[in-house]
Input
Amino acid sequence: MSAGLSRAVNVLKEVIDAPIASYFNSCVHCGLCAEACLFYTESGDPKYTPIHKVEPLRRVYEQEYTLLGRLMKMVGLVKPLTDEELGQWQELVYDSCTMCGRCSMVCPVGNDIVYMVRKLREGMAISGHAPDGVVAATKRTVEIGSPMGVKLPAVKAQVGHIQDDTGLEVPMDQEGAEYMVLLSSMEIINFPEYLSAITRIMKQAGKTWTLCSTAFEATNSGIQIGVSDLARVIVSRIVDGAERLKVKTVISPECGRAYTALRWEGPNLIGRPYTFKVQHILEVLDEFRAQGLLKTQGFEEERLTFHDPCQIVRRGGVIEPQRNLMRMVSKNFVEMSDPSKYNWCCGGGGGVSANEDAEEIRLIAFKRKKAQLDEVKPDKMVTACANCRIVLEEGLEHYQMDLPVVGLTEMIAEHLVESEPGSQKE
Ligand code: SF4
Ligand code: SF4
Output
């Protein structure tokens, strides 16, 4: 650590790299990112402007890596960042950023503000400024295997219930299966209907599949807290499980962050390509639909809308499968304004919902979703992320909106034409 510099300056110096430098040099201060961020649009407070959220990073970059900044620091025209100031930034870096990527999408010079937030979070986590709730969730994921502390016996208990209810096998550690199914803790605890739906869909499609006893959890808290080393540990657990079982495809569940962490960031984190494919469950279902393996009957008659999870759509590139699936079982599907990749976040991604300090601003930000829903007036909202689902339910309750929220996989399963015993294809 350099003598005379605060811990804050030292850790941020370490995380600044070439992309960060080029982003600060490219910013034309147009303010477009502000209008893209629901924390700014709904609060009206300029401190929530995305590029402002990474201000400590900019100060350290200028003062440590530019000639003018160094000179200004030398003559006392600018003050070096202190550890206390960095700590005060927690509200802007963790509480009011879901890493939804809407700001990065609209920036005219291509600044990836999500990347900058990630880097700033990394520095803050290393210097002890990450929120307690996010730290605890990450610790549980690394030590126990799940951010909510879910252990294998809880999964096995759910498996037992589903087998009893459906009369179908839920395979565990089946070597050579085509698909390995991951779950999020939220699904295990709050939405067991997801695994039940998968069990029935796989049966109808005639596919071999398995859960993995050493890697059932998909959520990557390492990404949320911003520490790549922890994210790597969590991804590696899934890679080891998938390779041990020699599966062809790993299915990421109805969880947005799990998908981008595993599909797009995982190979870079572990430094090599996977030996298997990664697909989001929506992609798998849409493939089954296109191949005639997903047979449904009847339609939802109510007016339905779909909340696009940011990490699946904007950051993940899965845009059409959910729409194909919605139209498969709904006669009255209406898009909200700003659909698909332009959609507005639920307000609780990126670790925000695990962070108690963020509750007030999260509910303020939810006014954006409320406005979208007030426009289309649906009878039911469908989504494909268990975290979004919880956050949406809390927001709806807070604003006294009586609107059921359901998962798309579960809704598709409700319309399945159940296959006759013995008709399973190999
Ligand atoms: S949109 Fe891009 S260029 Fe404009 S202020 Fe934000 S970061 Fe800077
Ligand atoms: S990533 Fe989303 S929440 Fe974070 S600053 Fe950008 S627009 Fe706002």
